[in-house]
Amino acid sequence: MARIVIVDDQPDICWALSKLARQMGHSAVTLTAAEDLFRQLEETPGDLVILDVRLPGMDGLEALRKLRQLRPRMPVIVITAYGDLEVAVQAMQAGAFEYLTKPFTLEAAAQAIKRALVPPTPGSASPNAAEDLQENEPRLIGVSPAMQAVFKQIAVVAPTDSAVHITGESGTGKELVARAIHHYSPRRDRPFVVAHLAALSPSLVESELFGHVRGAFTGAESNHVGLLQRANGGTLFIDEVADIPLNVQAKLLRALEYHEFCPVGGTTPVHVDFRLISATHQDLRRLVREGAFRHDLFYRLVTFEIHLPPLRERKEDIDPLAKYFLGRLAAQSGKAPPAWSEDFRQALLARPWWGNVRELRHALEHALIVSRGGVLHADHLPPSLARNEQDVSQEEMLRECVRKWVQQAVADPTLEGRLYEMFLQVLEPVLLEAALEIHRGQYIHAARHLGIHRVTLRKKLQQYRQLRRFADRSEDATPAANSDQ
User: Model's pTM, two decimal places?
Assistant: First the structure.
């Protein structure tokens, strides 16, 4: 049985967490101020601290730093309703074991408590104190649970030197995430180099990445330093990494493995030390299956993966993003941020934003120009972008597959009267499992995306898995039955 100390100035949070702790077989003490925490630990040692960020008097982050000095190995779970990237990074760098954003489920809290109470392995290092953060860090705006998860991932991976792969639709802010990782990493004072390979012809990609020597090819009139060498000591961000030609992929893999390469036309190896962050809006796993991307390079790139959800899936972020962009745009003109009407806000929330955050920013700039300093209204927004052709073609492909399936199924007499049921059994599990996989097993987020209750999602998946196991057993039993005859 562990002793858990809960510090939060909200009585309902203290009550719920203390009840959860007792249900898990632990004892719990609830406090409302950080100052009381240290007095409590002097009187009775604890095994785990659950600490709110916003507290009267000493705030949670300050208390966390002090606690790390006094109890360096005590696990601390930080909880807050005011999560942003800086809070997440400060909490993780100060040594927080876990970071939960209100409102969180008791299931998530229980999992965090279980993990925090696992005894540390011998020789494990104690957390380091947080370093001072600069004022000019990259800005990532978001209050949605999805963005809070992204903030937490950035905070976890930034202090390491691991390769990071960022996925997401165009315009979601993949480069901004890469810049944030670099900013909060030990390499922050070294170069951050961006490689936009999609804008280059395949023949120029190798030269741009690795450089070339004079006379390497026609037009190479002088030595050219490549992006890998420019990023030495810092971070290299390769945008649209899926566009790298196969022959260049092999050379990049060797550079990552051995930290050296030869420029195009050169014979003398160049030694480099850089951290690689890559991004793409394409499905790298599908490209690996199709042979268009090397599987060994894929495993080297995707050491840690961060997915940026599209803006249409996190409507909660539209309001704060709009305020941020309008404030920045107005400041550039030396004006105060504009007021907006309710119809303007509703119009922002109603749009699908196929161009994501990039489209939102340009729409707000357009509205600011048209309004000429007045109150923003819905008719100040430009026409909404149409959905891209790739998405439309995928829908048409899906419709065509369904048509072909129905044509074949109708010819099967055993499916008469069961066609609709069989259709659901074929497609619905794929839909539910894909949504759960995208949201990394988080039933709440997957269910919210699907528009169903998380309990319904869980029950449906259990039913389909039971049907699948029954079918597998039936197939296994068939040969035995035939052999008896």
Answer: 0.65
What pLDDT digit, counting tens, does each position of 358-386 carry? 999 999 999 999 888 788 999 899 988 76
CA distance 170 to 447: 24
The tens digit of pLDDT for each residue in 275-332 reads 999 999 888 988 998 888 999 999 999 999 999 999 998 999 999 999 989 988 888 8
Per-residue CA distances from 396 to 223, 389, 434 (Å)? 50, 11, 19
Q: Would the pLDDT of 483 be above 60? A: no
Check whether the bond before 310 is cis (ω within 30° of 0): no
Q: Which band of pLDDT confidence, cut at 50, 70 and 90, is reported for residue 102?
A: confident
How far is 403 from 155, CA to CA, in rounded Å?
47
> What span, in angstroms and rounded, lies between the C-alpha atoms of 61 and 95?
10
At 111-144, the pLDDT tens digits run 889 888 876 533 333 333 233 334 444 478 888 8
Cα–Cα distance between 77 and 67 in angstroms, integer?
12
- Other C-beta atoms closer than 10 Å to the C-beta of 64 total 23
- Other Cβ atoms within 10 Å of 76 Cβ, number: 25
* Secondary structure of the chain in HEC code, one letter for each residue: CCEEEEECCCHHHHHHHHHHHHHCCCEEEEECCHHHHHHHHHHCCCCEEEEECCCCCCCHHHHHHHHHHHCCCCCEEEEECCCCHHHHHHHHHCCCCEEEECCCCHHHHHHHHHHHCCCCCCCCCCCCCCCCCCCCCCCCCCCCHHHHHHHHHHHHHCCCCCCEEEEECCCCCHHHHHHHHHHCCCCCCCCEEEEEHHHCCHHHHHHHHHCECCCCCCCCCCCECCHHHHCCCCEEEEECHHHCCHHHHHHHHHHHHHCEECCECCCCCEECCCEEEEEECCCHHHHHHCCCCCHHHHHHHCCEEEEECCHHHCHHHHHHHHHHHHHHHHHHCCCCCCCECHHHHHHHHHCCCCCHHHHHHHHHHHHHHHHCCCCECHHHCCCCCCCCHHHHHHHHHHHHHHHHHHHHHHCCHHHCCCHHHHHHHHHHHHHHHHHHHHCCCCHHHHHHHHCCCHHHHHHHHHHHHHHHHHHHHHHHHHHHHHHHC
- 249-279 pLDDT per residue, tens: 999 999 999 999 988 888 888 999 999 999 9
CB 250 within 8 A of CB 294: yes
